[in-house]
Automatic annotation (TrEMBL):
Residues 16-28 have a biased composition (Polar residues). This is DUF1624 domain-containing protein. Residues 1-28 are annotated as: Disordered. It holds the Pfam family HGSNAT_cat. Keywords: Membrane, Transmembrane, Transmembrane helix. InterPro entries: HGSNAT_cat (IPR012429). The keyword Membrane applies. It comes from Hoeflea alexandrii. Residues 32-255 form the Heparan-alpha-glucosaminide N-acetyltransferase catalytic domain. Signal peptide: none annotated.
Length: 341
């Protein structure tokens, strides 16, 4: 899932050359904006709490589907939106007067490199649901796209962000279902991944963050933010420290959390989990991308009943048989599709 603000730039730069066009640009603040570090740190802590719930579910301490449905699903989306919004803010603060190629390339290289590392690690750990376009991939891609919006008027950038959010709600096409195109976000069947953050709609909050920051710069609001002292308590200092080192926090927090949950499972193992609810939840999630909720409930109930009645449920969920290796599986899907119409 979701981490962010990883295009870290809570302070502006002075003495930057105007590399695109000649229109005068608003001055960026010279002081670091501590409240942005604080906001980024709070978002990171929120992300860690969500991932902790995911880890508890993975080890069987929470019911299957807990972290991907209901309030926790909304929580995860709010966290992702906040990270991408803050990343858009950072891009404008760092490069609003003109792109500094070396600094931008270094930051993109770090984020993209970390994204590639996560893809590689999850490919070996969970090859069926590895992270091929997660939050880091989305931030890197959005940062590159965002360069085209650095000099556009703030209202136009905000409007573009809103359109990015709206387009997937009104248009999808099967042509975007293959993995090499699904990252765009216009698929009809979502790919399997433990953290999938497609460019659409998630470019939306990034561009909105850019537009809001340009408007704030033109009105001198960033100088006021830079003047705010967010407190000097140990908690506030720790939060700002994590916000300033968000990429390191993102890369390290999950191994730490997984290790803690694993250690707890050795001392107090969870109650064995019934795989049936997880199977039904996953089936309905995949089905709902292109069908009504009522249809998906009927279809997934039918598939579950057929698999159980034929003694195929355990072999299927354990991976002993698949729809590619056993012709009975697609036959059941076809039968249940017809019965559920």
């Amino acid at each position: 899932m979701e981490a962010g603000g990883l295009a870290d730039a809570s302070h502006g730069e002075t003495g930057l050359s105007d590399t695109v066009g000649t229109a005068p640009q608003p001055q960026t603040p010279t002081r670091r904006i501590d409240v942005l570090d604080l906001a980024r740190g709070l978002a990171l802590f929120a992300m860690a709490t969500y991932h902790f719930s995911w880890d508890l579910e993975l080890f069987g301490y929470l019911d299957p589907g807990t972290s991907t449905h209901g309030p926790l699903k909304l929580y995860a989306r709010a966290i992702a939106a906040s990270f991408l919004f803050l990343a858009g803010v950072s891009l404008v603060l760092a490069h609003g007067k003109g792109v500094r190629p070396s600094a931008f390339a270094k930051r993109i290289g770090m984020v993209a490199g970390a994204a590639a590392l996560i893809s590689l690690a999850t490919y070996f750990a969970t090859p069926d649901s590895f992270i091929f376009f997660g939050i880091l991939h989305a931030i890197a891609a959005a940062s590159i796209v965002g360069l085209a919006f650095l000099r556009l008027p703030a209202p136009l950038t905000v409007l573009s962000g809103i359109l990015c959010i709206a387009v997937p709600l009104v248009y999808r096409n099967e042509a975007f279902n293959p993995a090499w195109l699904s990252w765009i976000g216009l698929f009809t069947v979502p790919p399997r991944s433990n953290d999938f953050v497609p460019l659409l709609p998630w470019l939306g909050p990034f561009l909105i963050g850019m537009g809001v920051t340009r408007a704030a710069l033109s009105r001198g609001l960033t100088e006021r933010l830079a003047a705010i002292e967010p407190g000097d308590s140990p908690v506030a200092r720790a939060t700002r420290f994590c916000g300033r080192h968000s990429l390191a926090f993102y890369l390290l927090h999950q191994p730490v959390l997984l290790s803690l949950v694993w250690a707890a499972s050795q001392v107090a193992p969870p109650t064995p989990v019934d795989p049936l609810p997880a199977f039904v939840a996953e089936c309905e999630t995949g089905c709902s991308a292109n069908n009504s909720a009522a249809f998906c409930q009927r279809f997934c109930g039918c598939v579950t009943d057929e698999l159980l009645s034929r003694g195929l449920f355990q072999p299927y969920v354990s991976g002993q048989i698949t729809q590619e290796t056993d012709a009975r599986i697609p036959a059941i899907a076809e039968q249940c599709t017809a019965q559920s119409r």
